[in-house]
């Protein structure tokens, strides 16, 4: 596969982010990007699956991660439909239509190929299960295709193909980021795991609640060999959250930040890039001056 031409400084290792799917758990990607950005760690390539395509695509196009943090942090429990209602409404998650509208306005008619940071999204061809890498075309439609979770969302037509959630074929696209040209791949896995079920949980009435868990089992098996292609795997502690817990955005984003901070020394070691120290608040700096004076 032809690699993307880059404009990085000569001799510097090119860093790529592989952002996995996981519904609301994928908001941890916001925290990951915020810490990398604050530390001055460059991001040269991004590939996203499902929710990873939303966060990654938005950032690649706008470089404004603060917008996503502020938008999702304002969501409350009563703003999110139940799983049953989401299925009934054809995939509509938020009661407040302004949330989706703000994202639509922000993405507008942006093209994948015109993103500020090279970006690709992963989706699955619903007719044959083939992995489809979306490299050109309307960014918003690519994100919708990559995020079209079966049962909850209708497949999306993109370039004459009918596409569904990319997590079915490549839950954490570390392999794709490598193909884009990244020397160092940082993969962020927020959903793949093995789940133990008790017999009591297998009741027809509980099926909507089990869909996300069953998907995690499949992603666990698919993601294992793919993650081996990553140099660094970040696993924010978000598995206790449900895929539609968007009203818990602050907690999920925090976990993304915490996991990245814990691994900054490893990121420095692998990339050869020294992280910038985060500037302390004025009051804390003032106290340090007094105590050292």
Structural class: alpha/beta
Number of strands: 8
Calculate the terminal CA-CA distance, rounded to whole Å: 59 Å
The residue ranges in which pLDDT falls below 50 over 5 or more consecutive positions are 194-205
Order of helices and strands: EHEHHHHEEHEEHEHEHHH
Give the overall form: globular
Estimate percent helicity: 40-55%
Provide tags for this entry:
alpha/beta; single chain; 8 strands; 293 residues; 8-stranded mixed sheet
Describe, in short, the structure shown.
The protein is of the alpha/beta class. The chain has helices at residues 28-38, 51-62, 65-73, 83-88, 97-107, 139-146, 174-180, 207-227, 249-262, 264-271, 282-292, and strands at residues 15-19, 45-49, 119-125, 131-134, 156-158, 161-165, 184-188, 232-234. Helices cover 40% and strands 13% of the residues.
3D architecture notes:
With 293 residues, the chain is of the alpha/beta class. It is 40% helix and 13% strand. The protein contains eleven helices and eight strands. Strands 1, 2, 3, 4, 5, 6, 7 and 8 form an eight-stranded mixed beta sheet that branches. Strand 1 (15-19), helix 1 (28-38) and strand 2 (45-49) form a beta-alpha-beta unit. Helix 1 (28-38) packs across helix 9. The model is unreliable at 194-205 (pLDDT under 50).
Layout of SSEs?
Elements lengths: L14 E5 L8 H11 L6 E5 L1 H12 L2 H9 L9 H6 L8 H11 L11 E7 L5 E4 L4 H8 L9 E3 L2 E5 L8 H7 L3 E5 L18 H21 L4 E3 L14 H14 L1 H8 L10 H11 L1
Parallel strand pairs: 1-2, 1-7, 2-3, 7-8
Antiparallel strand pairs: 3-4, 3-6, 5-6
Helix pairs in contact: 1-3, 1-9, 2-6
């Amino acid at each position: 596969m032809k690699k993307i031409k880059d404009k990085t400084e000569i001799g510097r290792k090119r860093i790529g982010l592989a952002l996995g799917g996981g519904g609301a758990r994928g908001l941890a990607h916001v925290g990951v990007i915020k810490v990398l950005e604050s530390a001055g760690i460059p991001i040269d390539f991004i590939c996203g699956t499902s929710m990873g395509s939303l966060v990654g695509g938005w950032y690649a196009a706008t470089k404004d991660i603060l917008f996503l943090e502020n938008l999702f942090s304002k969501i409350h429990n009563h703003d999110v439909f139940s799983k049953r209602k989401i299925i009934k409404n054809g995939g509509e998650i938020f009661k407040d239509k302004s949330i989706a509208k703000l994202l639509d306005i922000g993405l507008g008619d942006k093209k994948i190929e015109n993103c500020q940071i090279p970006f690709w999204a992963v989706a699955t061809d619903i007719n044959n299960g083939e992995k489809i890498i979306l490299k050109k075309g309307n960014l918003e439609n690519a994100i919708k295709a990559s995020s079209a979770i079966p049962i909850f969302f209708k497949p999306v037509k993109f370039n004459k193909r009918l596409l569904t959630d990319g997590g079915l074929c490549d839950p954490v696209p570390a392999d794709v980021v490598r193909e884009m040209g990244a020397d160092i791949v940082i993969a962020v896995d927020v959903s793949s795991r093995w789940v133990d079920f008790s017999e009591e949980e297998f009741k027809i009435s509980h099926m909507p609640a089990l869909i996300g868990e069953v998907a995690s089992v499949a992603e666990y098996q698919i993601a294992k060999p793919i993650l081996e292609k990553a140099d660094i795997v970040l696993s924010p502690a978000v598995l206790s959250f449900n895929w539609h817990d968007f009203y818990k955005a602050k907690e999920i984003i925090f976990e993304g930040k915490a996991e990245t901070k814990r691994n900054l020394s490893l990121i420095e070691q692998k990339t050869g890039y020294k992280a910038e120290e985060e500037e302390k608040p004025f009051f804390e700096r003032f106290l340090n001056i007094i105590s050292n004076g």
